[in-house]
């Protein structure tokens, strides 16, 4: 069992969207559990709107201390995703989650105000633990010239952070998914959703590869 913390102390970078959709994509081949430790309970609201059984097990809002007790569960999971708070006031929660995590996925949006909180999350909370992680660039706008090139250069050259090769673009379907209760495993493939489904699916495969590298081939 591998525990993946989806974390960034900056709010609004897409932690819940990535946790829900990547967990759904990985559930096609693996036994997956999703836990919400964010006081905003965004995953709870999304899960309540899904008009069919969730493709993964969902623990609902939980205290972060439950993460350390997961190995005691009788049910075996391949991957456990943890949606975490996006604030500087919830450091205790993040400490507990990251202490128990095997890998951290760090969503980041291509905007200046996301830089400092992302760096703080990495330098103060993730790297001191020796925890493997990858930044995933989220909400790229294809209408903005050279945005991908500029931010890839910053991540790779200016900051040297490990990142996922897959990025996620800004889609209306992403914004609509929580209220519509949509997950990639049940979305119809059409011009509105095809790009989203493809990107999330590739990201899920890549996350599995990153996690497999922790202790050998998955």
TrEMBL record:
Pfam families linked to this entry: CbiA
Domain CobQ/CobB/MinD/ParA nucleotide binding: 4-143
Source domain of life: Bacteria
SUPFAM superfamilies to which the protein is assigned, alphabetical: P-loop containing nucleoside triphosphate hydrolases
Protein name: Putative plasmid partitioning protein
Species in which this protein is naturally found: uncultured Microbacterium sp
């Amino acid at each position: 069992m591998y525990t993946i913390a989806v974390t960034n102390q900056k709010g609004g970078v897409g932690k819940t969207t990535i946790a829900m959709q990547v967990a759904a994509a990985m559930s096609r081949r693996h036994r997956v559990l999703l836990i919400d430790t964010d006081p905003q309970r965004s995953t709870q609201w999304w899960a309540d709107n899904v008009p069919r059984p969730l493709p993964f097990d969902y623990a609902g809002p939980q205290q972060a201390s439950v993460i350390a007790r997961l190995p005691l569960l009788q049910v075996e999971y391949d991957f456990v995703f943890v949606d975490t708070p996006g604030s500087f006031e919830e450091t205790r929660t993040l400490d507990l989650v990251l202490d128990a995590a095997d890998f951290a996925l760090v969503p980041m949006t291509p905007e200046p105000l996301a830089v400092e909180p992302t760096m703080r999350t990495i330098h103060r909370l993730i790297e001191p633990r020796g925890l493997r992680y990858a930044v995933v660039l989220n909400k790229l706008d294809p209408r903005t010239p050279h945005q991908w090139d500029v931010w890839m250069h910053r991540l790779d050259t200016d900051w040297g952070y490990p990142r996922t090769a897959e990025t996620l673009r800004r889609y209306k379907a992403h914004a609509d998914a929580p209220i519509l209760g949509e997950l990639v495993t049940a979305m119809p493939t059409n011009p509105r959703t095809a790009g989203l489904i493809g990107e999330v699916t590739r990201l899920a495969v890549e996350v599995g590869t990153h996690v497999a590298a922790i202790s050998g081939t998955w």
